[in-house]
Specification:
Length: about 160
């Protein structure tokens, strides 16, 4: 086996790849809101509008997210690093510690997000220790706020010099 193929090298490379930060939300059968921080998010298709994200099979909310018929992708704004950290924590009521509301289609939406894509589940794909969830976008909210970025285990925003 090639010695360069190891978890540490993989994490180094992936950690050096800047990503946006999202909180994916849904509700369980009792309509209790659930959410988790996700940076494995990408656009898939324009026709139809499709996005994807992946969830670790060990996450406690895995059964709910993989069986739901809808979810929301909350693209965090640059001033929402605290929300990112909140939705990583375990065994707490995350929604009692942030501002949010139910959307018209009864999905929990994080207040102040840079954007929100509400989706109906299009397809799920088993992929190693994760499952990829593909959603068809059914509603879009854009606030034109700067997004929160994650790079080398740090969070921040795109610097003003980038726009010049």
């Amino acid at each position: 086996m090639d010695k360069s193929l190891n978890t540490a090298n993989y994490l180094d490379v992936m950690g050096n790849y800047p990503t946006g930060v999202t909180v994916v939300t849904t509700t369980n059968d009792q309509k209790v809101p659930l959410g988790l921080t996700v940076n494995s998010f990408a656009s898939v298709s324009l026709d139809p509008l499709l996005v994807l994200w992946s969830i670790d099979k060990k996450v406690s909310s895995y059964p709910v997210f993989t069986q739901t018929d809808r979810f929301a992708i909350n693209v965090l704004a640059s001033d929402q690093a605290d929300i990112c950290s909140l939705f990583v924590k375990k065994n707490i009521d995350r929604f009692s510690q942030c501002e949010w509301e139910f959307s018209k289609i009864n999905l929990p939406i994080i207040s102040g997000a840079a954007g929100v894509l509400q989706c109906k589940t299009f397809k799920t794909i088993e992929a190693g220790d994760h499952t990829i969830l593909i959603g068809e976008v059914v509603d879009i909210l854009s606030t034109n706020k700067k997004p929160l970025l994650y790079h080398q285990r740090k969070m921040g925003e795109i610097p003003e010099s980038f726009y010049r």
